[in-house]
């Protein structure tokens, strides 16, 4: 089951593209003919899954919360490709524990990667997109960012912040041919594998469609929001979650 997109001539940047949802998103863009820039801090996995010889894919081993590194990478990508039409802010981590046990580091690390990384990439790509009068930014939020989850005050705050950031930047850039949207996934990845079997069964039971998605199903939703044809959609959070958010 797959949908074909055509992103020939486009340059797509994907953060956290070494594995999971980000890998599937980057692969979808590559198959659809785009030039792809994959930003991920896991240099070893990045090199394994996207060797230097991979056609039309360039990798940048960096931490998305490092604004100077993000600025330098985006400058390099824009210079090399002549523009960046699509940016997907997907990189993420969890550092779960109840709020009264949460360390400063658990709090700041999660906020820095999700919210800080989304800010850093957006701030750097918007001028490139404005100059071209065209852009598609897709952020990755979560059900937890809308409804909360025990043990995830840091993650919920970050993902809730991403929703507010998405709507604000959508308003700020709407006059420049740029759309900014978010997806809220529910997919079987390493992040979900960290959950116990019992908890996973409980979580699956709450999904109306009765299963977690394959990460590639997230890429299909991103493809829609990244397409030229989705020009009239901005500032939305699209749940790709089997009905969980109903
Ligand atoms: N899997 C789900 O069901 C689910 C649900 C809701 C939201 N999400 C969100 O989807 C996104 C992808 O999640 P996933 O399940 O594929 O996770 P994953 O752990 O499989 O992949 C995350 C990727 O991000 C990279 N990364 C982490 N911190 C980084 C940093 N500071 N700089 C650069 N790269 C970094 C990792 O190296 C990894 O390649 C995350 O934002 C996550 O919060 C996932």
UniProtKB/TrEMBL annotation:
<keyword id="KW-0560">Oxidoreductase</keyword>
<dbReference type="InterPro" id="IPR050259">
    <property type="entry name" value="SDR"/>
</dbReference>
<dbReference type="InterPro" id="IPR057326">
    <property type="entry name" value="KR_dom"/>
</dbReference>
<dbReference type="Pfam" id="PF13561">
    <property type="entry name" value="adh_short_C2"/>
</dbReference>
<protein>
    <submittedName>
        <fullName>SDR family oxidoreductase</fullName>
    </submittedName>
</protein>
<dbReference type="InterPro" id="IPR002347">
    <property type="entry name" value="SDR_fam"/>
</dbReference>
<feature type="domain" description="Ketoreductase">
    <location>
        <begin position="10"/>
        <end position="195"/>
    </location>
</feature>
<dbReference type="InterPro" id="IPR020904">
    <property type="entry name" value="Sc_DH/Rdtase_CS"/>
</dbReference>
<comment type="similarity">
    <text>Belongs to the short-chain dehydrogenases/reductases (SDR) family.</text>
</comment>
<dbReference type="GO" id="GO:0016491">
    <property type="term" value="F:oxidoreductase activity"/>
</dbReference>
<dbReference type="InterPro" id="IPR036291">
    <property type="entry name" value="NAD(P)-bd_dom_sf"/>
</dbReference>
<dbReference type="GO" id="GO:0032787">
    <property type="term" value="P:monocarboxylic acid metabolic process"/>
</dbReference>
């Amino acid at each position: 089951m797959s949908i074909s997109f055509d992103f020939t001539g486009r340059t797509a940047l994907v953060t956290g593209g070494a594995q999971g949802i980000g890998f599937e998103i980057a692969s979808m863009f590559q198959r659809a003919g785009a030039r792809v820039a994959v930003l991920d801090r896991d240099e070893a996995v990045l090199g394994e899954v996207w060797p230097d010889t991979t056609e039309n894919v360039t990798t940048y081993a960096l931490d998305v919360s490092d604004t100077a590194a993000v600025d330098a990478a985006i400058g390099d990508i824009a210079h090399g490709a002549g523009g960046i039409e699509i940016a997907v802010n997907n990189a993420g981590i969890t550092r779960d524990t109840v709020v009264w046990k949460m360390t400063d580091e658990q709090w700041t690390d999660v906020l820095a990667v999700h919210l800080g990384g989304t800010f850093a990439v957006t701030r750097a790509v918007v001028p490139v997109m404005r100059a071209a009068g065209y852009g598609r930014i897709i952020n990755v939020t979560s059900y937890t960012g809308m409804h909360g989850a025990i043990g995830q005050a840091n993650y919920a705050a970050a993902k809730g912040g991403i929703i507010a950031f998405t709507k604000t930047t959508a308003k700020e850039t709407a006059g420049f041919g740029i759309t900014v949207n978010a997806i809220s996934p529910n997919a079987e990845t390493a992040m979900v594998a960290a959950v116990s079997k019992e908890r996973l069964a409980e979580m699956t039971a709450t999904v109306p469609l009765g299963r977690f998605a394959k990460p590639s199903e997230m890429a299909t939703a991103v493809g829609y929001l990244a397409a030229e044809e989705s020009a009239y959609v901005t500032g939305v959070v699209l749940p790709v979650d089997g009905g969980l958010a109903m």
